[in-house]
């Protein structure tokens, strides 16, 4: 039986990049997205327009309401990228959106996956947000998760569902804990998109907190490679892996790199720290290297240069 992939969140930043890789390899792929209004859907449609090849088919559907058994019929690999993003928006009344799109949606997919006789792997996009303010750095997968935002709580809940369905029903899940993904086509609300755009245009860059907060930045192509390896390589059901770029630099250090990339002094405006924003992330990815043979390949300077080149195209600047 030939491989058939289902990629959820296919119009998003990571999902569309995965679909491009699969389509370029001629692998039959069904991409599904419902175009939520978390950010401008024009960018999502532009993302889809970059996916070339007759092996790719797009389905517009809300996974919390659509006929999932029909959608998963004959699917050998689920790469589950769909979900409600963002720490700041997850507080207050919006929390119900996060529970629906991150927890309930994942549970619906897993229920159908447990009945499948073709499924070989279910790859779930988790997040370093599950760790919160971790007990040590670099953080291991076995360290206690302590999310400090409602968003992190929902990502951890969905991850726990993946391990539960693996241990109870043998669903072949692999959860990948992403550490701060960046690169071309990054969401417009994410820091590097805003910073690169402002840097190229000479506009102010808003930084929340001192800028000494540390992040483990991971380039999108490295994230995609981890997903494809997780889908292809054998691993015990319920496996959880850190996917971290290994940079672990402060935001101020990253801004210094960006200043070199854009070739001009940045105009930085500082604001109070955001509630639920952790001070540091940093993952130990040695288990991903052992299980998947995965290692990050793109440095922060290389990745930011690629993101700046993409943004120049968006802005129509040289």
UniProtKB/TrEMBL annotation:
Superkingdom in the source lineage: Bacteria
The keyword Membrane belongs to this UniProt entry's keyword annotation: no
Task: State the UniProt keywords alphabetically.
Answer: NAD
Q: Would I find tRNA-binding among this entry's keywords? A: no
* InterPro entries registered for this protein in UniProt: Epimerase_deHydtase, NAD(P)-bd_dom_sf
Q: Identify one Pfam family in the record.
A: Epimerase
Which segments constitute the NAD-dependent epimerase/dehydratase domain? Answer: 6-243
Protein name (record): NAD-dependent epimerase/dehydratase family protein
> What organism does the UniProt record list as the source?
Actinomycetospora lemnae
Instruction: Read off the lineage from the record.
Output: Bacteria, Bacillati, Actinomycetota, Actinomycetes, Pseudonocardiales
